[in-house]
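Thanks for the sequence, V.! I ran Magnesium transporter right away. Repeating your input here for the record:
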Amino acid sequence: MSAGTRVFVARLAGTQVFDPIGDLVGRVRDVVVLVRAKGAPRVVGLVVEVPGRRRVFLPMTRVTSIDAGQVISTGLLNMRRFEQRAMESLVLGELLDRTVRFKDGSGEATVEDLAIARQRNGDWLVDQLFVRRRQAGKSTLGIRRRGATLVVGIDAVTGLAAAEQEQGAARLLEAYEDMRPADLADVLHELGGTRRLEVATALDNERLADVLEELPEDDQVAILSGLDRDRAADVLEAMQPDDAADLLHELPDAQAAQLLELMEPEEAEDVRRLLAYGEDTAGGLMTTEPVILGPETTIATALAQIRKQDLPPALASMVFVVRPPLEVPTGRFLGVAHFQRLLREPPHAAVGSVLETDTEWLTPDAPLGRVTRLLAAYDLLALPVLDEEKRLLGAVSVDDVLDHILPDDWRESDDESIDEAPTSGTEATRG
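Predicted structure:
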């Protein structure tokens, strides 16, 4: 890799990282820089996501090549989880969408990308910015004008080192648009509080709801509390009712009541019903939105229902068959039809003809211990929850149970099975 190699960081996101013998190590998730008041920001390393969704630090001194859509590293990789230091900035997470000012007085611009270049001495510096000029006013049609884009040298602008300023998130979200909600939640968790809220606010309601469900409770509360009340209520409506209820449990009673009042009555009613149960009971764990069908429904229709993209895999493992009404609390519960059985039957047959009627079920006050025992004993992914009149109230899925039996900080805990082989000199390269 010769001096003068230049790479734009937004294009680097997701690039595969290989070791010297060609084995895949992980993917680039961000670039770590030291932004200084004077002089170009210095690149100290890459944030690399390795198997297990762990993010680790790869010093630039260990990078031998960045080209052809790949990064080649040398030496051992320190598998200790990356922790951002006080003087460090994440290019994708913090510097994109930042407002800078031209030193010649010609106005302001928004940073859409940064280029890093290797110097003759081996150091990597941010030497260019891809920016969009801020255009004042609107066109005659009332549409806000988009400013021209240009590449400028880092020494042509000021403001990149500003610690706190209002900032958009469009370019960051473009870089991460293909990420799964759990992975994007990891990105948000690593950002500072202000930046985290800016990025969360820029997500649409459905995407933000999916991401919130993957965040630790403290982050969930901070984000929801930072949104305006109407937007917060809309996001709660987009969440699974059980996840929305869990989040409202963490809010002050007055705030939770206010948000419930702002939600659509039908959505709020489902959440209120769940809030009435203890958090560690079947009623508190269940969702009120499993796939519920009448016995005359065809198997073809049942299969179409469980193919819906937004249906969690555990709930797609079976359909729950009841007498009308089909909204919870339903008519009398008849049984379940498992996905594999549906695949073996003619599409025109009725689901009522392939029911498993002796499936285990739970009362809403069943404790967490009974829920876990039944799921484990019968190798099930979900269980129906019935009232005393055998009406279906909802279903408890295995993923909701795991969220309650794992430690509160399980999203942040290191996997002890990963061998942490320290790289000599790694810490010194981040001075």
